[in-house]
Amino acid sequence: VIDRTSILAKLMELPNQSWRNIMDLASKNVESLVEPSTIKEIVKILKTNNRVCGSVGSLFTSQLQKFFHEMLNVYKVYSERISAAIAQQGAIATKMSLVRTMRSAKKEVLRLLITFIDKSGPPEAAPQEVAQGFIPPVLDPILGDYQRNIAGARDPEVLHLFTTVITKLRQNVQNDVPRVMEAVFECTLQMITTNFEDYPEHRIRFFEFLKSINQYCFPALFNIPAEHQKLVVDSVVWAMKHTERNIADTGLDILNELIQNVSKTPNVAQGFYQQFLLSLIQDVFAVMTDRLHKTGFRMQATLLRTMFHLVVNNDVTVPLFDPSTAAPGQTNHVFLRDHISNLLITSFPNLTRSQVSSFVDGMFDPKLDLPSFKTHCRDFLIQLKEFSVEDNSGLFRDEAEKEAREREQAIMARRSAVPGMLKPSEIVDEDL
């Protein structure tokens, strides 16, 4: 039997010896760690480990254990030095050569951890063992540093790391999610919501992080303070309204999954509906009718149909209105119908009451399947003055893609009927 662990140890002898020399020197004088030549050597060692980890997968556990805690201490030292430089010289310190070199070492630590978590698995690195052995020591130095730093010194790799942790380890790290969210959520949200342009990588990583929690650790979203729950919903709405298509689409996907998960969780559903459902319906309507998000039409229609049908099917048992000011016998169905009608008439003065009434009737029709509901919404949008003078091809994207697929299949069928017309690369061999 081949002893893979011994072979890996033999392979890593040289980088491990270099690491040992650096650590021995640092134990006598920690200042040696901030020598530019030492930092570059550390970056080289970490990159080597990263490449090996990517190749050997979970076997790398034995190698990482040899220097894991020392690596986190190095991360901590560089974090403290960078923070001290920023405190002394302000944001301009992030442009200094030494600070940039230390940040590159920190990034390599994060990248190695991302690769290790992503490649982890039984037998050497079962999810539960990784969650218990490697995650707790990581939380304090990495999360604390991210939260304390100025915006320009926060590494988007931190968000990528915890997205990977949640995606890979799932329920094994569910109890750690509130702590992670407390450290990264609010400070990142402040960075990315100032405008639509700054910190593009943080923006993408942030919504991937949120999507992973929603997908794999959903109960954790309701183990955080109520004000943070509101921030989660607000951030999803903000993403949905973003002018960059991939972020707007991600926001719609997260909201769709969030509503599906909430509907399957009775102990949180009614509270969620009472606090957010009405405003979410208004926000999706706002995005659908603003002319900037036509490519997201399919998911916008899906969301509206899901939310209206929650009311139609009486899945929402709490009042969406204020009972103290409502008329006796008021129901969610009647309230929502009147509310949406008034909203549309106020927002679009060119529409007649009969047009609005006809549209709202269709929104509440439980017999409409998704394709029919989409057609109903699209017909309404094209009546709007704002849409009538524009290119509305984005509203027909699904149909256009379907037609293109069918056209391509018909061409392939005609060509395959004639021997020799297809290239070898185009032939699908069903035996393979």
Secondary structure topology:
Elements: H1 4-11, H2 13-28, H3 36-56, H4 61-89, H5 97-119, H6 127-133, H7 135-148, H8 156-169, H9 177-192, H10 200-216, H11 226-240, H12 245-263, H13 266-288, H14 297-312, H15 332-347, H16 353-363, H17 370-383, H18 385-388, H19 397-416
Helix pairs in contact: 2-3, 3-5, 4-5, 4-7, 5-8, 7-9, 8-10, 9-10, 9-11, 10-12, 11-12, 12-14, 13-14, 14-17, 15-16, 16-17
List key phrases describing it:
432 residues; mainly alpha; 0% strand
- Largest beta-sheet characterization: none
Helical/strand content category: mainly alpha
In helices, the fraction of residues equals: over 70%
Order of helices and strands: HHHHHHHHHHHHHHHHHHH
What is the 3D form?
Answer: globular
Parts with pLDDT < 50 across at least 5 consecutive residues: none
Give an overview in words.
With 432 residues, this protein is mainly alpha-helical. It has 19 helices and no strands. Helix 4 packs antiparallel against helix 5 (97-119) and helix 11 (226-240) packs across helix 12. The longest helix has 29 residues, at 61-89.
How would you summarize this macromolecular structure in one to three sentences?
The protein is an all-alpha fold. 70% of the residues lie in helices and 0% in strands.
